[in-house]
Structures are given as C-alpha cells and as structure tokens.
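Q: Hi! Curious about what Intracellular distribution of mitochondria looks like structurally. Here's the sequence.
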Amino acid sequence: MSTANATEVDATKAQPDTTSIDSSSPAIEAATAEETAAATEEEAAADSNEAEEEPYKLTIKAPNGVLVPVMASAQETVQDLKLVVGETPGTMEYSCFYLALNKRRLNDFAELSEIEGLCLDSELDLVEDQYTEREARVHVSRLRDLLGNMATANPMVAGLDAGVSVFSTVKQDAQETHAFKDFELGQPASLDVLSAGKAIRQLAQPLCVRLLVLSGWNPVPRNRQLKGDLLYLLVTTLENQSYHVTAGSSGFYVNASSTSRFNAENYGVAHAGQAGVREAAYYSAHSLVTLLRRLSPKFGKGLAEIQKAMAERDPAETLPFPLAEQAATPWVVRGAENSVPAAYDVGAPQDAFLRQGALVADSLRDWNEELQSIREMPRETLGDRVLRDRQLHKWHAEFVEAAIPGAMAVVGGELVPLNPTDPVDQHMFLRDNIFYSKGFDGRETFAALGGDAAAHVATGKDITGVRLLNQLDTQGLHTLGSVVVDYCGVRVVAQSVVPGVFRRQEATPIVYGSVDQGVTVGADAEFHRLLEPVAKALHFGEHEVANAAGEASKLYTSADVKGLTGTDGRKYVLDLYRMTPVDIEFLESECAADGRFPAYPHKVVLLRPELVDTFWEQSTRKAVMDHVAERVKGDKGAEEVAEEDLLKGFDFSLSFSPDAFTPMQAKTAGDEALAGAVRGASRFLRDVSVPALARDLAAYVSTPLSGAALTATMHQRGINMRWLGRIAELLPADAPSVGNIRRRVVFEMVARAAKHILRRLFRAAPSHQHADVFALVANCLVGSRYCAAPAQHLARGVPELAAMTPASLAQEVRAQVALRFRFDLAEDFVAALVPGHELMLLREVCVKVGAQLALRQYHFERPSEAAVHAAVVAAMDPSVKVTKTVKRAIKDRVDAVLAQPVAVFADDVMNFVAVTKVATHKSSFADEAFEAGRLALEKGDRALGLEMLLESLALHEQTFGFLHAESARCYSVVSLAHYDAGEYALAAEYMTKAVVISERTVGLDDPLTIHNYLNLALYEHARGNSLLALRLMRHAMDLWALVNSPDHPDLATAYNNIAVMLQSLRLYEESLRFFRACLDVRVAVLGTEHVLVAGAQHSLAKVYAVTGDFKAAVQVERDAHMYFSSKFGDDDPRTKETGEWLAELTFNAVRTAKLSKAAKEKIREVASTASLMPMEQREEPVASKGHLPIDDLIKFITGGSSSSSKPRPSGGPRGKGPKGSRR
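A: Let's find out. The predicted structure is below.
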C-alpha cells in the first residue's frame, strides 16, 4: 500500500441499492507479486512460534495505591512499562522510579521474556528512585508540559496548531436533527471545517499554579551539591503563596530562601516552633506533584480535573507527540490566537535548559556513530528486529527534528560557515554534529547538467538513493543520515558527519567511484563485493567506466556514487543521486529546445526505481511466456510436456547500467546491451506506463483526491512528475467526463510552477517581506477577480513585486509549466479553471511551500453587502441581544469587510514551515505481517488474517509509536476486517482510532482522513447510530469540497450512502435529493450507457415508489430496464427484475392517478410521521412500510386490499442487512 498521505478514496463500482450502502474497502495494493506474497506468508509462518506467545498481563503497584494494569508482549522491555506508568492519569506524578519484582530491581532495557521469575500475571512494584540533575530537570519539565496545553506539537518544527484532532468536536455536533438539513449540493467550500479552535479550547488545562520557574539562586553552589541539591525552583500557587523549592537527590522540599536571602534549609526546620509552621516532613516529598498538592488545595483540585479529562478522552486525542516531526502541519490555523503568545510565562525561556541542561554544548550527540551502531545491532530473532527497527525509527525522527531548526538557521543567516571566505553558495555549516550545505551548484559539479537546477534535483534524488539502500539493509555497507529541508526558497541538505571527513589527507579518501567527474575512478575490490547484492536487487549489471586516461574500471553502481572508508573502519557510500538509469528518451527529446518548448532546465532526468522494477518484471514475464510457448510448439505437443519441464533451458537476464549514455560509459559489447535495456525501459515509460495511467485516470480506475494523492499514484507506477504535461494532453480537454481529473492534473502543474516562482521571489526579498511575497502571488493567482492590481497594496520596497500583475504572473506560470512539464496552458487558464476552485488551488500552493494562513472567510470576488451582513450575523452568539450598539458593531464589521482591498493580506500569512524530504525508515517485519494478514483475508481465512493484522498493528506501535500514520493504516484495515464479520462495535472502535491518528499525523483534510471518516460513518450506521453517521458524513463532505470539486466520481458513492442513511430515518423526500445526485454524477462521468448508471436508476425508481411518485419511477425504471435488456439480454436476472418492477410501477402509476387527494396526502404522511419517531420506534411494523413491495404499499396507503394480479417482484427492495454491499 502507498504511504498514508497518498491514500485516496476509491470510486465505487458496485450497484447502489436503496437498502444497502456502497462501502469502499481501503485502497491497499499488493506491494509484491504472488510469488513474493507466498514467500511473505512462509516467513511469517516461520516466526509463528514467537508471534503466538501469550501476552503478559502485569499489574504495577504504585506507592499511592494505584494499580496500573499493563498488557505487553514478550519482546517489550521494562522501559516500555515505565512509559505506560508515566502516561496513566493516576500515576502521572512519577517520573524517577524503577520497577521491582519480589524486591529485585529490574533492568530498564531487559526484555520481559528474559526476566527470571516473571510470570504472565506477575505484580511489579513501583519504587521511587534517587534523582540525578537530569532526572530532576525531566520531572519539572514533564510537570510544566502537563500543566500547559499539550494539544499541539512544537511549533518550531511542525508549525502552528500542528497535530490537532477535531474528531471530538465533530462527534459532539451530532444533533437530534440530521446534519444534511441545510446542505446544498455543490455548495462552495468553507474553511470552517478545518477550525481547530474549539478542539484546542476543550483540551486546554485548568490553571493549577501561577508560576513554576527556575529560581534565581541557580546554579547550585558547590557545597550544596555535596549535600544533594540539584536545582532550585520558585513556585507561586493560586492562593498567591510563593515557595522556594529545592530539588534534591531524595526528592523536593520547600527551603527557607526568599528573593533576597538564600537559606537551603528545610522550611519546617528553619521556622520550627513558629505559628502555622508544620513539621519538616510536611514540606518535603519525593514528587513535586505530591508536594504541591499539600501546599495548594487549588493545585490538587485542578490536577484532579486534568486527570479526569485525560481518563475520559481517547488517548489518541490527548497523547503528546514524543517528536514534533510526526505531527501534521495544517495549512490554515487560528489567526487571533496565534498572533500573540498564549500567556505570559516567565518559565518559557527556561524550557531549553530544563530539557537539555547547562552542559548541552559539551554533550553533542554523535549522530553518525549512533546510527551505525544501531544498524549493527543483531537482527536474527523477531525481538532483535523489532528493537532494531524501533531504534532506527527513533533515531531518524530525532535527527529530522534536530536538523530542521539548524536548516532554518542556515537560511536565516544565523550560523557562521566553516568556509566564510568562499562564495555564499559554497558555504558549509556544522551545528550539533550535523553538517549543512545549500542545494546550489557552488562548486560547478553540475555545470554540464544544468547548474543550480541540476544540483537542486540531485539532492532530492540522493534521498531516494539513501532510502533504497536503507530498505536493502546490506550488512557492511553504511549510509549517512540525510534530510533535505526546503525553507523560504532555499534548499538545505543536512547530513550526519562521516568520521574523519574534515581531516586533511594527502590522498583522496574516495576508493570507489569518481570524485572529479571521471578524471580518476576508484574500483576498490571490497566495495565491489559489498555492492554486488545491491546491484542484483536494483537490476544493475557490472559495467566498465573509463577515466581521463582511458583506463577502464568495473563498477556496479554509477561512477558518481562514491565509496570511502571512514576513520572508524566502516564502508560508507555517498552521493546516491544516480541509483537509477537515465531516462534517455526524455533526455534526447526534451533537453534541447525543439521550437515548441524551451530546453528542459536540467539533465538529471532519471528513471524511478518503481519503473525499473516494473519493466524488469514485465520483460521477464514475457520472456518466460515466449519460452513456454516455444516449448509447447515442440515435437512432443502440449499434452506431453510436463509442467516442471516447461522452464528447462530458460536463460534470460536483464540488467541496466546506471552510467549508460553518460560521458564515462565504456563502449564494450556488454555495456551496449546494458544501455539497450536502459533505452527499453525509457521507451516503456513513455509508450506504455504514461498512456496506461492516463487511460486509468480517464476511466476513473484511479481517482486521486488531492495533489499529494496524484503524486503518489504516479510515483507508485514509476512515473516522474515531469510527465504531468503528457498526461494532461492524453486527457481530452473537451470531454466533460474527465473534467475533474484533468483539472486536478493542471492544478498540480500550476501549483508546482507557483512553487518555483515563489522560491525565486523569496530569495530576492528579505525574510521580513516573505509574507508580502506570498500574499501577492496568492492574490494574483486566485484573487484577481477581487482585485485586479494587488501589488499596490502589498509590494513594499521590492521592485520585482511592484511590477507584478495577475496577467504577468499567469504568463510566468505558463512559461514554467511549458518549461518543466512540456504543456501549453491556455492563456485564459485562470479565468477558465480557477473560479469556484480558488481554495483548492490555494491549498495546494500552501502545502507545497509550507505556508500557514489565518483561518477566516476569504472572498475571491467582491461580495454583496447583504451576503456579508448575513455572514456577520451568523457568526454572532445567538444569545446576544440586538441593541443599537450591536447593530452599529455589525455595520462597522460589514463596512470593514467590504473595504478590504485584496483577497489575501500579508497579515493572513501566519507562518512558514520547513518542507522535508526524508529517507523514511520502514519496519520490514511489520509490513510483512500486514501483507500476510491482508492476503489471508482476501483468501477468506478471517481468523489467520485478523491475527496477522493485529500482530502487524502491535509491531507498528512498538516500532513507530501510537501516533504514526502507519498505525492509522493498520487500525483502518483491522476495523474493516471486523466490519466484514458483522462486528460493528469493534469496527467503529478501531476506525475511531484511525480517524484521530490520521487527523493528527497526516492532516485534517488529507485523503486518508476523509476516507476514514467515510468508513466510520458506515460502521456507525451499521450500529444503528444513523444521526451520528450523517454527522460524520457531513464532515467528510465538507472536507471533500475543500480538497476537490463536486464533480469527482467518488461522490456518487457518498451521495448514495447519505441517501440510504436518510432513508433509514424514513426521510424519503430528502433522500431523493441524494439519490438523484448520485445518478447525476454517474451519468456525467460514465454516460447514460453504463451498468452503474442503470443500477442507480433502478435504486432511484424504488425511492420514487416509496414516496408515491410512480410516474417518475416508471420513467427512470424504463431506462434501467432498456439498458439491462440491450446489454445483457432478456434472461439476465437484472433484466428480469427491472422488467417486473417496470410492469408493477406502470400498473400502479395508473391506479394511484385515480386515488383521492386524501389518499395521496396519506402517502406523504407515512414518510413525515416516520421521520419524527425515535430509533426504537422505527423498528416497529409501521416503520417498515417504505420497504414493502408495491402491492402491500398501495394496500397500506388506501387502507384496502391490493387487487393487482401481477406477481410481486422477486428482487424487490432486498434488505441485505446493516452491513450492506461492498464492491
């Protein structure tokens, strides 16, 4: 399956039914062929002895009497149990402790299976431990975090309002009336659906202390350090009492100091005998939380409220992110709240000291040594692999989180370069043992390939190469930790430091590959041996390259890939941007001006690894088929050739040269064959893969919902983004049925072009004017109907901005699209495509450049005064009494909105966040278990499938943690397995977790989140919670309108499901609207002659019959019957069913035309009275009249017996149970 940000809502191919819901299973694609899947199952079975171990059900007893039940696997460590204690509300006060079994201290890093005497149901004791200075800092820092707002992640790394979930507020908004009462089909998108203000306010903690900071008496005097003092704190309680507190090795106590006099003695001892002073033990406790409870009753009350709120909420909503890098960054955020600090906090500047300590500069992490040591950990057993994967993921996440602030400091000019005398583009930086360089061609390495443009692309390709080698995980071969950071127009590469790289050496340390563009080439035998399995996995053949003297050397990888031996003795490979062959057909045809388009900006045009794999597999399969066909044609005949003999004599190999069609390629016969394979793959991409994707997009076999989903779809098929223009050309511009996907493709090109324009403008403007730059580009791109000359309101001192107009920007976008995507945008593309889809395009641009806008109602054309007045009144508190003062305030607000000169202001740009490319680590065993479980479900083995999926879920959580997109994916698939089994409560429980985790890790409006909301709505409806299901559907539809447009084909499924939910509430008239919308979408996308259209017509006819409109029912049913009859013949069951319904409807259309007015009114009464009944009453016989066959329905309406002699339709409105039908 694709990564989470690329998951998309599938189009439903099943025939809709008025009593069943089309349910789209998650878009999970097999990552391997059947042979690989079989091998996966075998490997999973081989580890079954460990996977089937019974879990530990332990109990941890705390000193305060709280018992913490913990269920853990044998591979988990004692440290994992300690984390559970810290996250449990009743034991959150403990941070410095150890666990003991029978009074024996347990090693924090010991696996449970290795602990002697530990039983499956043992009770462990929580024993308070001695504090160190670090433990004291952690304790205070955790308490400050607990008392603060933990709803969002670190804004320095993840941006404003990062990692928020709004699910709880969506669920709370479920009313007694259904959520679609005021819904208008095709209504404009509203940003209110992304409002996280209410959710953040609900997560806000009650005030417990006024002040909790480090005291001015720090640092601790040396003589007091000998007595165990670690830190001094100043605490002011809500009762306005100030206390000086000592953090010592045995715990915390109130000392006798004041702001003017230092006295480290216990307050009870220093003031013994004075009135109101208690004994010394009262003023000391092991935990600061316990001490503050004694000193401040209001603190105890507030903390109890926090504990209660934590216990009541789903942990997925309140759990803080261990690393901010995992949190999703929204593109719209709270405006007013983020414009000022949340509160005046004297302790906020001290947080860095509390987390890192005073000696942080002397304790820099050796990132590279940590990474290589983790890679060298054992991997023989499941426990070894899980521990190793967890440590690798943790290291990568921490490295990215540390690299982002450093890269931002590089862009901001805050770091001193290592080589200050060199040109700016060549500057290198070192911070926290992370090496930084800019993505420019400062040393002219890529001068012949495109200069800065080639260098920019090469940095991203290097991350792809690192990812490939990390996935292969070859022992003895090492890569660096790497991350690419794009921030405010500058690309920065952050890497761990190779040991010895900064030492002066007489000879070059590069022993494999070339460091000087082929002048010299190294071919170290040891590196050659280590790279052989890599070459085999990547389908590289051994090839020759020649140096400047004409001497040939044999390599497996490209000569641009460098191998060196570090001073630690490890073998490192660097500069991995050429780990795939060149796209020679594109290079020859597009990298030179051809008259229609200018030359492509660079020559680093490489094939994607997915394309190489696909071409290799298809070529091998074709060779096998040709060989088998040749064998069958032999003298023996097909019957006489044994199956095992068919592949006898089969000899086929296909390898590629990464140096093919480069200046260093040797001209031997073997290398010519490798080059021929490269050309074949390039032609396969151009002539097969790209047209196949265009056909699938046109037929809506693939239906990407967002730009990220489209990108992932292309990458999964091995298609580079430079082929977007060709795909757009293959989608006919004048075909309404492909209008949605063609608009998505064009918008992706426009957004990427705008990103390149913004990158150039950001570099030309000072940082304090970046908000003006973005606002101006946004206004010219999507706000030209509101203001035709936005530059006069936004350009402040930048000549290039002052000259920008909507027309000039559109011309530059067209030029960028032609240059980078080889596509001619129409001159009026803004007027033709953007109106009505402004937010969709603005979202794509914001996501690509990392901009965060204030959440407000943006107007992209001048609104009327009446519309603004209505919006202002609607936003008011309904309880406010309308007085003259209120009316005047309303008028002032309306006048202010109407007077706004532009659509997007510079002040609307709240922040820019770093956009990263990372070599994401994946857990191989967790993915294998996931695939094995999925395949078992497909084969019908639910027990094995569910067991493997739950095992995969446990492995994902152990590896990545609870808050991770991979965990959300597992929860989603496990919930689907329970839904298929009819276990709707369990399905809803798992899907709820998937919804919350996806909101927090991939985004509130990510396609995965929308998909999960739609599925959760189905599960809640199956449980009988139709009102809640409709509220969830409404939220998903509002998100959909923001991300895509009303003509997306998957909306037919959503409309059908909404109609069925409304029908279950007997709201037949309202359900009609959505059944008609479902039919309209299907006709627009598929045309009138399609089986899904006929199915929708048949469903709509049934609902017309329920509402008594038999004339309309006959017209629609006739079209369905004609299609089934002409397409499948008169003997097809669908033809017979629609024929019987058509006859019955025709007969009753005549009969109901003769009914009295009172009888017709009774038809409407059936529906309207049923809609007012509570859920329990809807199960009574009267509630099911809408589902009766036609004869019985007429009998119920007229109060008499049915005289129809025609047979009752055998198909009828068949009830398929609450589960419904799934495609």
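A: A fun detail: The first strand starts at residue 56 and ends at 61.
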